[in-house]
Amino acid sequence: MHSLAIPTTLLPLLSLALGRPLEPRDTAEFTITSLSGTFPSPPPYGVPSVNSSVSIAVTYPDPSSATGATLDTSCKVGWPAGTTPGPTAWTPCDDSTLQFRMTADGWTSYANFEVELWETMTAEGAGLDATQIIRSDPGNSSDPNAYMFCLQKGKFNPTTCSLDGPLGTTPRTIVMTPITESSRPN
User: Fold this and answer.
1) How far apart are CA 162 and CA 151, in angstroms?
2) 21-56 residue pLDDT tens
3) pLDDT at 90 over 50
4) pLDDT exceeds cutoff 90 at 76
5) What is the C-alpha to C-alpha distance for residues 157 and 39, in angstroms, rounded to an integer?
6) Who's near 95: CB < 8 A, 6+ residues apart?
């Protein structure tokens, strides 16, 4: 009589095989597809007082989709001339399901700041939260947060920043993996 026996050395492998999903799981992501910023430039050849702003285009998860569909929107924040750019409060994007802010603990300057995105997913207020440092550091190719290019184009012009490089020849995107929160961070 023969009996079916599973060697004890194969039992850990069997539990791993049974625990793996049959299909890959989609991970929600926020993707900043473009960024445009305008900031004061220091004297003597810059413009120390300009209407400053940061605008981003974002692709984000569709909360009503069961198939991983995404939506696109734009977000913008601004500071009037004479105001020093800095951290902001939560600001609704064009699609108010998504909000963003420039965090106080991540703001160093217009060339080094942290963007935080929040998407409300449930009626109870739970949602997805993601943050990313965005820095202009063209001389340091090993800096993982150096996504942005900032420059002053000629005398008496403001400083402009983008993800596309000085001549628009190196387009970049910023992929942010959010975490689920029970409510929007303060």
Assistant:
1) 9
2) 433 345 789 999 999 999 998 888 888 889 999 999
3) yes
4) yes
5) 10
6) 71, 73
16: phi then psi, degrees, rounded to nearest 5: -65, -40
SS3 per residue for 130-145: EEEEEECCCCCCCCCC
Q: Which residue has the tokens 């202009």?
A: 136
134-174: per-residue pLDDT in tens?
A: 998 877 777 888 888 888 888 889 999 999 876 667 778 99
Q: State which amino acid sits at residue 74.
A: S
